[in-house]
Amino acid sequence: MEKLDEQGRGLSTTVWTQLDRKAGAITELTIRQLRNRISTWVVLGVGVLLISLLLIFYIDSIRDEFESIDNDGDSQDWDNDGFPLGQELIYGTSDYDESSFPGSSDYIYQGDIDWNDQPRNHYGNHTWIYAMGYFSPTWIDVNSSNPFSWNENWIDWSLGDYFCEEEGNLGSNPFGEGRYTLQRNYCQFENGTYIMFGASFTGEGEFFTEPGWYTEWGYLTEPFLVEKHPKSMYIDEDDIDWDGTSISSSQGFDDDGDCLKDDYLVESTPSDSNRNGIFCDVLWTYDLNGNLVSIRADNNVDEDPDDSRHIGESSHRTFIIGTGKIAFVMILGLFLPLFLALGLVRDESENGTLHYLLSKPIHRGEFILYRLLGYLAIVVSYTVILTFIIAFITSIIGPGESIIRLSDYPVWFGISLSTILVLTAYGSVFNTVGLVLPRYGVYLCILFGVWEFLMGLFTITIPNSTIPMLSISHWAIQIIDATVMIAWSDTALMQQKANAFGLETGISFFWHPPVHTLGTGSPFVALVLSIVFILIFSLGMILIGQLIFKRKEIM
Q1: Where are the beta strands (DSSP E) in 221-265?
Q2: Residue 254 covered by a domain
Q3: Would you call 174 helix, strand, or coil by DSSP?
Q4: Which value, in Å, is the radius of gyration of the alpha carbons in the chain?
């Protein structure tokens, strides 16, 4: 026996079941109408095409950006001698002089006679540099070649003897005008003494430096064989070292020894450029609330991070955040309602079917709500499927040791939620505008869409600006920012690391901590506030549309 309600009606025919039937009928009708329109499939297809293009660019860029690069440049070989800069620094040789390399003969300074020094003569077996005066040789290395690429005054003894009396007249002032009469920077007198005009050579003897001039001497080390280091040895060799504590402390470690000069053949004072009294470290400074204030590294400390771990990860997050905000919220969130929600009621009136539908026992306010539900059934399903597909692909090919990046899915959920909310809000707005201005409402909706798009850009670039708060896109973007902060709690730290160590990422452009936290700094507060605001706005626009539709005369 069928159960009856208090008024004697069967439960199968109560007002609630009637409501369900009407809701289902109108919603199903709306879905069928949207599904049979070519414009619906065109708009949805354009959205899929947009996301596909973004995925292609992501897959193409991931191969380059996630490869390790030389952040500090010590793997370069500027003089093409086969030794990277890092190895040349260890041996104290020049990477801009191909004749100076690890194991090559090196000049060691021993002494000099300056323009006013006394005495003016010196005896020894040396390599003489820029000699200006008279040299009485005991022995000269006539077989030596120029060891200096920077010194063009080295004497080439293979050219043969060059006598002063035969080749030129030095006059009474040989170190003045006389030296310009010679074809070389030296010549030999008949007694065997040489006069030198800034010449460089190797030999033993006594050298007298002309008053007012300069002569330097030293020796050349014996060359030895040094195995060349591979360039890969100087890539990602000094990663960022941090123990994870949120207190002000000395962090960092000079992994490659270029700050402490460990295992370096050249002597140098270790760096303390952050001036904390500790050589070769990184000073991490936090405030009383545990917020990171600054990161100051000494020179050559943590200067070459692991790019796949830092830049790769930040680039991956940048893509997800940027795609969520611009592609989903600001583009799909605007264009789908513009083409699908604007004519939900207007088109029925123009087609002459609205009068027939309203002749049925259905309230006008209910009719608007059910039409919106049919529209939402299409766009919500579309959004959920699209976000899941792109989330699945990026979570597989993204950086990391796991097969699937499960940490990405909460962010994609936030993007999907944010997109669904703006689709609801914009759908209610455009539907209401279509009721008020059936003929010219599309132009007003386009202007509204331009406003929302610009406010979204302002929210991304200037999150603390007040004017964007008057837009739906601002609060939708706040949802994504809050979700990112919840799922990827280290995003702010990653951003600060990038700024401190000179890593180029896009996180600082696309993401900022949520603004509306009621002074708590909690992303959960920002998430709830943003959702509530958009829902209230959507319900308000639906109510306005219902009130207008109730009083609207149907011809």
Answers
A1: 249-251
A2: yes
A3: coil
A4: 40
Distance CA 528, CA 228 (A): 60
For the chain, the average pLDDT equals 84
Query: Pick from 58, 59, 200: which is nearest to 140 by CA?
Result: 200
Mean pLDDT of 448-453: 92
Where do the DSSP E strands lie in 245-376? Answer: 249-251, 282-286, 292-297
Paired sense of beta strands 249-251 and 186-188, if any = unpaired
**Does pLDDT of 52 surpass 80?**
yes
Helix axes 311-322, 472-487, angle to 10 degrees: 150
| Tally of CA atoms within 13 A in the half-sphere of 273 that contains its CB | 11
Helix (H) or strand (E) holding 534: helix 523-550
Where would I find the beta strands (DSSP E) of 57-120? 107-113
* Residue 99 domain-assigned (yes or no): no
The number of residues making up the chain comes to 555
Q: How far apart are CA 368 and CA 372, in angstroms?
A: 6
Based on the domain organization, do 164 and 248 belong to the same domain? no
Q: What are the residues whose beta carbons fall under 8 Å from the beta carbon of 355, sequence distance 6 or more?
A: 554, 555
pLDDT band of 314, cuts 50, 70, 90: confident
Provide the residue range defining the domain that includes 273. 238-304
What is the Cα–Cα distance from 263 to 260, expressed in whole angstroms? 9
Q: Which residues contact 289 (CB under 8 A, 6 or more apart)?
A: none
Residue 2 lies in a domain: no
**What is the amino acid identity at position 510?**
F
Asked whether the beta carbons of 446 and 437 are under 8 A apart, the reply is: no
Instruction: Assess whether 336 and 279 both reside in one domain.
Output: no
* Angle at alpha carbon of residue 377, lines to 414 and 433, rounded to 5°: 90
Instruction: Note the helical H segments in 15-37.
Output: 15-36
Report the alpha-carbon distance of residue 82 to residue 228 in Å, rounded.
7
Rounded to whole angstroms, the Cα distance separating 203 from 142 reads 9
pTM score of the predicted model: 0.69
Q: Are residues 187 and 315 in the same domain?
A: no
Domain count, the chain: 3
* Contacts of 440 by beta carbon, 8 Å cutoff, 6+ apart: none
